[in-house]
Amino acid sequence: MVDEAHERSISTDILLGLLKKIRRRRPELRIIISSATLQAEEFLKFFSETSEGQESVDINDNLTGAIISLKGRTYPVDVLYLESPAEDYVEKVVSTVFEIHNSEPGGDILVFLTGREEIDAAVQTIAERSADLPLETQALLPLPLYAGLTTEQQMYVFDAPPENTRKVILSTNIAEASVTIDGIVYVIDSGFVKLRAFDPRTGIESLTITPVSKASAAQRAGRAGRTKPGKCFRLFTEDAYKHLPDTHPPEIQRSNLAPFILQLKALGIDNVVRFEFLTPPPAELMIKAMELLYALGALDEYSRLTRPLGMRMAELAVEPMMAKTLLSASSFNCISEILTIAAMTSLGGAVWVQQDGGKKQMESARRKFAAEEGDHLTLLNVYQAFVTKGKKESRFCHDNYLNFKALTRAVSIRGQLKRYLERFGISVDESLKVPREGRADQVRRCLTAGYFAHAAKMQPDGSYRNIEGGTVLYAHPSSLMFNRKAEWVIFHEVMETGNKTFIRDITKIEKSWLLDYSAGFYQTKPR
Asked: For residue 286, is it within any domain?
């Protein structure tokens, strides 16, 4: 059974392609595809079509499958639009929360925003302003909901609010279909969502804020009518709604395909170009992914998975660039350090926590762990201090503005990755000392061997350019390299906020390393 198929994630699309392939060998296999806003005809047609050269099955003959509609019981939802566009949708969200609170009867509020930074800012603003509400009125309890929170923090949104309190849940699109929260009567839809977008020309994948689709807007509004009649406040005009796309392009048409091609090859599907995708990805994305995997050493010149490197990269539960970094670490004599860095970067920036109004204190706490070479070695210092001086205790984290749950998760992830390497026969030296003289250099070289495709050069104005020179990048304010000089860097992650493209987890490197470790991915041009 495949659920939430309408979300069209790459994993779902590839799974459906594999199931179609399996069904040819096992026609008795029964497959159920379910979803809230499913384009049912499209899925049935996909399974009805046979491979090239064979006739397609008539989708109306019920031999392949049938479409069954189950109507859920929903209550009517009034949809309200703005008369004119909002200048700042985060500020408009906050003012709409207080309008509902002051003029609408009881019921919890669900707000859709695009990401962690917006949600945290809105939660703080609502908490501050609700302190000024008259004592006799109902209290407001703002709660965040996004993927970076611990399971315990996410579960708060499901708890019943204290007496005489209205919950305000501020969420990413995680609450669109994946979870149902009781008590929601009002939905505020900012009209935006953060989507992953990969540019094959630059090789950079970024998270970009884009307008929602009509299908997403309908899903969001539907959250208000689960338990009784509700209202949906859309923070855009009705005319803007009419111009929204019906659905977003499937993830497979706008993502870096390297991890998925690696998985298909490991499953024995060598001819990935002929694989039956529900929606075929653009040729440029396939070419770029194959080029990267070849440069990483995962594929040979015949586009076959290399042994043992390619097979091991496919088996490691991390994306290909980090897999190559981990598997190169023994030749750079820094396995222990790279294991730690792999675990810490997997936390997605959730290492530091800002306690009440303590931004300056958090910054000074971060400086205690700072490594001159950049963010990766700083994360290594944090982890080593946590497991040695900090004895893996929450008190140490609280005193140093660190996220205890995130660091505990890093210890677990590191253990899993270590077990993978040991299974491959790679022994890990666990002398957890501060990097020996020259060890930091080896770590940076090893990171370059995996992340050479994510390299950038500093410009006179302090910004960076990727190697092709077409994209202007800025060090994220959370990076140690923000306002610091480094001629050449590699980076881990790209994100777009407003009209700027930021890079996170940045480390200084030498230009010559890019040529040494990229297997021909870069060449120098004669001047």
From this structure: no
Tokens of 234: 């859309």
Structure tokens at 80: 């309200």
Q: At what angle do helices 320-328 and 283-296 cross, to 10 degrees?
A: 10
**For residue 115, what is the domain's CATH number?**
3.40.50.300
Contact 23, 29 (CB under 8 A): yes
Which residues touch 141 (CB under 8 Å, ≥6 apart)?
A: 161, 162, 165, 166, 167, 168
Q: What is the pTM of this model?
A: 0.83
Instruction: Identify the DSSP state of 80.
Output: E
Q: Are 82 and 234 in contact (CB under 8 A)?
A: yes
Same domain? 195 vs 118: yes
Q: Could you give the CA distance from residue 428 to residue 397 in angstroms, rounded to a whole number?
A: 27
Q: Which two tokens stand for residue 354?
A: 């800002």
Q: Is the peptide bond before 211 cis (omega within 30 degrees of 0)?
A: no
| HEC sequence for 222-249 | HHHHCCCCEEEEECCCHHHHHCCCCCCC
Same domain, 108 and 218: yes
Residue at token pair 């207080």: 98
The three-state secondary structure class of 169 is strand
pLDDT at 53: 40
Summarised one tens digit per residue, pLDDT across range 231-283 is 999 999 999 999 999 888 999 999 999 999 999 999 999 999 899 999 999 99
- Both 397 and 470 in one domain: the answer is no
- Cβ-defined contacts of 47-51 (< 8 Å, 24+): 47/20, 47/23, 51/24, 51/276
Q: What are 137-178's pLDDT values in tens digits?
A: 889 999 999 876 767 778 889 998 889 999 999 999 888 876
DSSP label at 87?
Answer: S
DSSP string, 439-505: HHHHHHHHHHHHHTTSEEEE-TTS-EEETTS--EEEE-TTSTTTT---SEEEEEEEEEETTEEEEEE
CA distance 9 to 507: 31
Q: Phi first, then psi: what are they for 85, rounded to 5°? A: -60, 150
Nearest-angstrom CA–CA distance, 181 and 169:
9
Q: Would residue 471 count as lying in a domain?
A: yes
Residue 201 exposed, middle or buried by CB count within 10 Å (0-12, 13-18, 19+): exposed
Query: How far is it, in rounded angstroms, from Cα 124 to Cα 120?
Result: 6
Which structural domain range is residue 434 located in? 319-443
